[in-house]
Amino acid sequence: MKRLFTALFVLVALAAYGAEEQINHNWLFRIATDASADYSGETLDCSDWQRVRLPHTPRYEKYYPGEQWQGICWYRHTVEVDKLRGEQWWLNVEGAMNVADVWVNGVHCAHHLGGYLPVAVDLTDHLHKGKNTIAIRLDNNDNPITGPRPIKRLDFFWYGGLYRNVSLIRKGEVAITHPFIDTTPAEGGVFVSYEGVCKKFAQVNVGVSVENDGKKSKRIVVVNRLLDGEKVVAESRKSEKLASKGRTTVKSTIVVAKPRLWSHLSPALYTLHTSVEVGGKVVDEESRRIGIRSIEIKDNQLYVNGEKSFLRGVNRHQCHPYIGYALSDNAQVRDAVRIKEAGFDFVRLSHYPQSTAFLKACDSLGIFVLNCIYGWQYFNHKEPKFREFCYQQTRDMVRRDRNHPSILAWEASLNETKQPADFIAEMSRLVHEEYPAPYCYSAGWQRGYDIYVESRQFRLFNNTTSDDVPLIVSEYGDWEYYANDGGLTQYVRGWRQKPELTSRQLREDGEKRMVQMVENLN
Question: Does residue 327 contact residue 365 with C-beta atoms inside 8 Å?
Fold first, then answer.
């Protein structure tokens, strides 16, 4: 007789509404040898499945792989909840590569494309009191909708698995919404922006989206407290009537006198504590670290808090030997510390959105970030769903990361890809629609963005020689100046130049090569 899987559960009894609990332990995993196999059922014989902990990669990879695992894999997890009437429950999957389908108690709840931004699922109508089964199917095979190029022609790997944290969020009837479930442009959750930032004062604008899932209207009070350490330096309170099954965004302005300003030289952070009260009782609350700063580009120069600034940048991929993408949050922080210690104050996230743990570390350390959507030398002109995917990526990237002071600009552009003019215009428009406030800049590989992301070859490819727009040098030292192994036709490999003339030099090549790389920039 087969043994039905009923073990390996976590009792989830969160003490307060708005609480978020990671459920990274005690997952079951298997690689599907049959793509049509269905492991989504509420009960299943899992005696031969592997027990794993998240973050997780489907296969231990080689130190330098040369290839990566691709295929279909499944994860299963059982949680036991003390669900009460009127509660809401949300599942938040930070990273699931690359096409994800989610079932709860045998019911299909979500289909999601793209492995670098969260999968958020409203489980309220699918969970019951007691044990509940979550099943997730992942497919990281080449995909014409998400792109980029087939992996055999790609210069990086996208690995697989549930490679970031997974959490359950418990909410009451009246709750601050989730920005990936409440998808109203420029709203959903808590959105913080700034105006008039200077040394004497700063205006902090806070939008808090609240929903009432109950059967009666409620009088809500939204409270925002700005703390410097333990000290409350400013506060706002706003009251509003919220209809049954309704939602609203309560917008408040906090004026801060003599603010400590965030910059790459002095990353001052405040804590913003947001709460929602009904009848004098707190029914939901959230806290986040924020940094008050201004970013302005004038006459093709960068000004941070009114001071002309020059940033020294580097690119970062999130992969590591053996574990692929499955880094712990501590490892994400370690990478940020190493970047800062190496003398860099700017990092480009090549070529996809990366972990929020890494962004929080950049906030704390004073590292500016160029945030990028997923893409690399690929545009699918034949499939309309490809554009829809790119548009959604842009929205989701901004919505997830808009409150990080480290974000310098949004690279809503497909890396090293020739893109249609109307596509560029829409991508830039979406950035500003999701962030309709000062100090917001789109960036991309062709004209039409606020900032031009350039490299020497791509500038020549697009016949762009003038400097009438701000630019960021994207990857100096990678394939600048006729690199020996790179470029728009990298997969052809038929045009290699003399290695001593390129900018892709190694330390072991000696000081002469290092000097050549520096001179190439002049």
Answer: no
Handedness of CA 38, 39, 45, 50 (dihedral sign): positive
CB 166 within 8 A of CB 24: yes
pLDDT over 70 at 480, yes or no: no
| 248-274 average pLDDT score | 97
Say if strands 471-473 and 451-454 run parallel, antiparallel, or are unpaired. Answer: parallel
Helix, strand and coil percent figures for the chain, each rounded to 5: 15, 35, 50
Residue 457 pLDDT > 60: no
Between CA 67 and CA 65 the distance in angstroms is 5
Interatomic CA distance for residues 195 and 191, integer angstroms: 14
Q: Rounded to whole angstroms, how far apart are CA atoms 257 and 181? A: 35
Burial of 490 (0-12, 13-18, 19+ CB in 10 A): middle
Q: What are 366's two structure tokens?
A: 């004073």
Q: What does the pLDDT read at residue 18?
A: 65
Non-local (6+) Cβ contacts of 429 within 8 A are none
Cα 283 → chain centroid: 28
* DSSP H or E stretch at residue 389: helix 384-401
State both tokens at 215.
Answer: 């059967």
